[in-house]
User: What shape does this take?
Amino acid sequence: MVSAIFHSPLDAASDSNAIKKEAHPAYSTRASGSKPLSHPATDAAPAVPRTPFDWRALALSVLPPVIGLGLLIGIWALVSISTASSIPSPWETWKQAVVLFSDPFYRKGPNDQGVGWNVLMSLERVAVGFGLAAAVGIPAGFAIGRFEFLGRMFNPLISLLRPVSPLAWLPIGLLVFKGANPAAIWTIFICSIWPMVINTAVGVQRVPQDYMNVARVLNLSEWKIVTKILFPAVLPYMLTGVRLAVGTAWLVIVAAEMLTGGVGIGFWVWDEWNNLNVKNIIIAIFVIGIVGLVLEYALIKIATAFTFEEVKS
Assistant: This one.
């Protein structure tokens, strides 16, 4: 039949479109069974936009300290010029510091040792006195904050003894311990204990009452209440007290060593004053400040790691 041999115009048009599709590269691989070619413009991964470097934040974090340090050096230089030869200039002090720190651990006798040994001896006294204060003050703070009777009993004593000057305790230490080194450690102990006692007690008192009610319902022992409930909640307050206590201890040791003598950064400052070596005194001031700054920064980082912010709903 004629209809079986000849195609209609619509069939011819559809066949031509099919031939064109088969000839296109995207469809030419259909017969072979391979994957069709991808279009580079549509299949490429989108480019990640680069975050521009925040120069303003860098400037705000770097410039203020640099300007402050420059202001300090400028005032220092003006004072050294106005006082003629009594106050050394920053450049003269820098040259002396280079000579001093070229050999900070020399030993030429019991009273002639490098600045490194003096700093280490002061840190050793601080560590011993501070450690004893922490061993006594933190448990005392837990007890005072936990039990109202103890709080009422010791709060007047703490309020009475805490404002006493650190050097007022030094003669008591010399009288009791009969030695300069134990007296200096005693002075550090008695002045470092108050921040830890007060902050720990305040932290215990601020624990939500709901926690204590749950502990009472569960019939928990006092040891579990302290270790499972109080300690995690009080830890940020306790670390704040520790940070304040370390700063106080480092301040006290310099003054105590000036009076007791021996090896230490405080005694080194006093000995250089007796030798009229003002350059070394200024260097010692910067050393004391840098060591205190390092201790403060380290404890702030530790406190930040254990401080948890409340999640707001």
